[in-house]
Design a protein that fits this description.
- The protein contains no helices and 23 strands.
- Strand 20 and strand 21 form a beta hairpin.
- Helix content is 0%, strand content 59%.
- The strands form six sheets. A four-stranded antiparallel sheet has the order 4-5-6-7, with no helix packed on it.
- By secondary structure, it is mostly beta strands.
Amino acid sequence: MAAGQTETPDLPSLVERWNGRKWAIQRSPERNSSAGIILYGVSCSSPAACTAVGLGGSPPGGQFPASLALRWNGKKWSIQHVPYQSVPSGGTYLSAVSCASQRSCTAVGFVGNTEIAEGQVPLAVRWNGRKWAVKLTPIPADTNNTNLNGVSCVSPDACTAVGYAANSSGVGTITLAEKWNGKKWSIQPTPNPGDLGDEATLDAVSCASRKACTAVGDYYNPVTSATESLAESWNGKKWTIQDSYNPPGHGVYLYAVSCASPTTCTAVGRAFAGTVSGWTSLAERWNGTKWTRQPTPNP
């Protein structure tokens, strides 16, 4: 299952399903198409149980977007109610979802804080088979802009979410990882390449087990004056930076990762090779020792 958006007026959100032979567009319900519907993530625990998340529309009397969750039961999609958190809220946004079972899904994102310039606080909601509920997520000290971009759950009581946090001065971002143990979220220390004033973010994470997670993203390298890919791994005790592959150019970004085992991961993104070649697709493979680039076709 894949989820996203389209510019077609009568089909603002986009869901497509692969049946082993071909992709087909599925009709998904819309809450308020005039405000725009965007789906950012989808997770399936079985062919008849999928959850897609994003944002769309506004709550009654509201002016900012509200988070959105859709549920697939094998026959059709339906809208699920997601609590609208206020901090006060500048909108609630869900960026990713991971379902460990039909009755256990975790979605993450952020809530806008209208009282602080560019202020955001992390957001995590959990589905228990009956309803979604907000779960308190800690905020790193001396930060005012925190976002959770990706999440991976190996069981209902073992999830890892990643993102970034900006310091209160508003200069630079640092990587962020948080762990769910079935009762609460807690921050895991993550290393940062370069100086803390540099831009660094983790966009996605994939956990092959409780003791094996890989997160990917990017950071700004002041030495090369370019954005480079970033990969970090969790071994059950700590996060460490891996030497990811960076092709020559002016920008490399990794947006998603999937790990079948601790020694088998694939990350995808894009690389900028210059004004002549432009942007190209990028795939990197982890073999347990190092990351290498895989050839990818470009349309």
